[in-house]
Design brief:
- It is a single chain.
- The longest helix is centred in the C-terminal third of the chain and has 24 residues.
- About 70% of the residues lie in helices and about 0% in strands.
- The radius of gyration is 21 Å and the shape is elongated.
- It is mainly alpha-helical.
- The C terminus is likely disordered.
- It has a single domain, classed as Tetracycline Repressor, domain 2 (Orthogonal Bundle).
């Protein structure tokens, strides 16, 4: 009787071509951003350096510099959350979690300072306000989830809107005035948030107003009715 054969080990699926190619283009763009502004030219040069044709680059990044800015922000989100995953957030007070989360995310961004400066100028353009807000919201959402936030009511939206504004403004201070000024600014903003939360909790009829505000914020983010409005 023949010995039973060991089950075949399935080969690992190959990496997604688009994801892998996007990261190659982003790597090339980080180097080129030392001297090139955040434009379609940067995308084409980075794609060429990554071994892609102009046609492939257009297929991969149809929005050009906007898609590249989103890739950069999301890479920094992933790196920051990977670093924060090693932290026992339950041992920290909520203000300490938020401070650490924002600081970690800023540190990851500043490791690619030249590119972040270029991308920030691009995202400050009037025609990119929507993308900038969406990316800041994504970052804030990831940090709140890491911090243990489970709110599904109006607080889900108000917390993320506030933290997105803090992230954006603190990054601006960091780029303009350095890490020490940014740390002081961040500490003051977190104090403001804590004071706001206490004030909000003392309002006897805050529920309806906050629900309406949450719906408005959600529509800005998703372009449709939010769970808070259903």
């Amino acid at each position: 009787m023949a010995a039973p054969q060991a089950p075949a080990i399935a080969a690992a699926p190959p990496p997604d071509w688009a994801d892998e190619a996007e990261q190659r283009v982003l790597d090339a763009a980080l180097s080129l951003a030392q001297t090139l502004p955040w434009t379609a030219t940067l995308v084409l040069r980075a794609a060429e350096r990554a071994g892609l044709s102009p046609a492939d680059a257009d297929l991969l990044l149809p929005q050009g510099p906007a898609d590249l800015a989103a890739l950069l922000s999301r890479r920094h989100d992933r790196l920051a959350l990977a670093s924060l995953a090693t932290v026992n957030s339950g041992a920290l007070k909520i203000r300490e979690r938020i401070r650490l989360g924002v600081q970690t995310r800023l540190d990851r961004a500043m490791a690619d300072e030249a590119a972040v400066r270029r991308a920030s100028l691009y995202l400050a353009r009037p025609d990119q306000v929507g993308l900038a807000a969406s990316l800041a919201w994504e970052t804030a959402d990831g940090l709140w989830r890491w911090a243990g936030d489970t709110a599904t009511d109006e607080n889900h939206y108000s917390k993320r809107a506030i933290l997105a504004a803090i992230l954006t403004s603190t990054l601006g201070v960091r780029l303009a005035a350095g890490p020490d000024r940014a740390a002081d600014y961040l500490a003051a903003r977190i104090d403001n948030v804590m004071a706001f939360e206490k004030w909000k909790g003392r309002l006897p009829d805050a529920g309806e107003a906050l629900t309406q505000a949450a719906g408005w914020l959600g529509r800005l983010r998703y372009g449709r009715r939010t769970p808070a409005e259903r």
